[in-house]
Amino acid sequence: MTEENKKKGGSFKVVLVLLLVFFILPGGVITGVYFLNQSFKTQANDILSNVPGPVGNYFDSFPTPQENTMKIKKISDYMLTIETTRAIDKLLVLKSDDTAVYNSVIKSMLRTNPNRTEIVLEGVRDSTMKKDVIANTIDQINTETSDELKKKADYLTSISVSTAIDEMKNIIKSSINGYKDLAAIVNVMDSEKASTLLKFMNKEDFDKTFEYIPFEKNVEIKKAIANDKNRRENLKNIADIYSTEDVNKLIDTIGNTKTYTIDELSVLYNELGPIKAGKILSKISDDTFTFNLINSIKENQVLENGKDTVTKDILKSLKIYKSFDDNTKELSDVYNQMTSDKVALLIKNMVRNSARPTEYTLDNGEKIVLTDEDIALSLLKSFSNKKISEILSLLDNNLASDLSRKMTLPN
User: Fold this and answer.
1) Does residue 211 contact residue 179 with C-beta atoms inside 8 Å?
2) Where are the transmembrane segments (predicted)?
3) Phi, psi (rounded to 5 degrees) for 189
């Protein structure tokens, strides 16, 4: 940089500093005083109003304190001359629009006619209190209505689904606004719980109720219903896989509620069919689990088909296989006390008698067929590996091979 450029740069900085000191900073201070000091602002407006052109017109438009006082006095005098009810209404509007002006008007009224002003102020206070009472009453009504809706929603989700469906039908029929009333209750429900109930409603009631449910809640519930439908389809596919697996292995998975809910299990057992379902349940000792599961299957059958055609066959199947298992266990206790050669002979005779099976016919037409060979296989499975080997070694090769193969098949 040349010496001449340096001098120019230095001169520019000096000019900036002078502008800042003599123009910008004073201007900022004056602006602050103008807005913060009413007396200074009035004097400034008075001086600037003499400037010709738009600038002078702008500052001339600002009212002086005297003019403001006169306007306040005019309003207050007017309020003191009109009817009390009209004065109250106008003051309430003024109070809501500009509290500062309202306070100034009241002060002016008190100076002019304190007695009359007290009467008007009493009316203003009463009106304000009435509005507060109305607002509080409305809030209380809204709260009580909300609490009542919540109680009804909790009640519907606490009872059985079939009973809840009947209750919802009664709500619809109870008034001309039945669908709207039901929608209000549904709106305060958990969306998942609401979907559990609404998915079983008939289409007409479903559609009309949803017309009154807010959009966001509407979407949530329908999404939950769609997810439930997909879940049930997946459970049906899982049931196809379970139908080929050994009963004893399935007990840990679907013989309790660790993996699936009761509602999900009801879908699985229904898809497995009464024979397989009864066979599994016959080996479960938890009577409460079995009772809850059967009730869930029955309720879903009624809701989906209008009647239950499944649980009777499941219970019949359960009873048959339970009796079979009990008899096998009694025989096992006896056979375990015998020598292997005697047990081998009894096993051989059982297999020969399999030509005379015992049949049980279920209501749906399916048959449960039990043979002495089934008893023989169950007995063999109850023995220790050592005793099984001893017994099979005492049978002819074809029979021993056939029994070994059948013991590995799913039960």
Assistant:
1) yes
2) 12-36
3) -80, 155
Q: How many CB atoms lie within 10 A of CB 139?
A: 10
Question: Left, alpha or beta for 365 (phi > 0: left; psi -120 to 50: alpha)?
Answer: left
Distance of CA 320 to the CA centre of its chain: 43
The one-letter amino acid at 337: Q
| pLDDT of amino acid 106 | 85
Tokens (6 digits) for 90 = 């106008």
Band (pLDDT 50/70/90 cuts) for residue 63 is low
- What's the token pair of residue 129? 């209190």
* Among 338, 279, 280, 278, residue whose Cα is nearest residue 313: 278
Q: Amino acid letter at 237? A: N
Domain ranges of the chain: 14-60, 65-132, 152-234, 245-408
∠ CA 167-170-176 to the nearest 5 degrees?
A: 140
Question: What are the CA-CA distances from residue 373 to residues 152, 221, 355, 377 (Å)?
Answer: 58, 53, 9, 6
Q: pTM (2 decimals)?
A: 0.62
- Rounded alpha-carbon distances, angstroms, from residue 81 to 87, 122, 255, 326: 9, 17, 89, 104
State the Cα–Cα distance between residues 406 and 195, nearest whole angstrom. 46
Strand, helix or coil at 103? helix
For the segment 283-301, what is each residue's pLDDT rounded down to a tens digit?
999 999 999 999 999 999 9
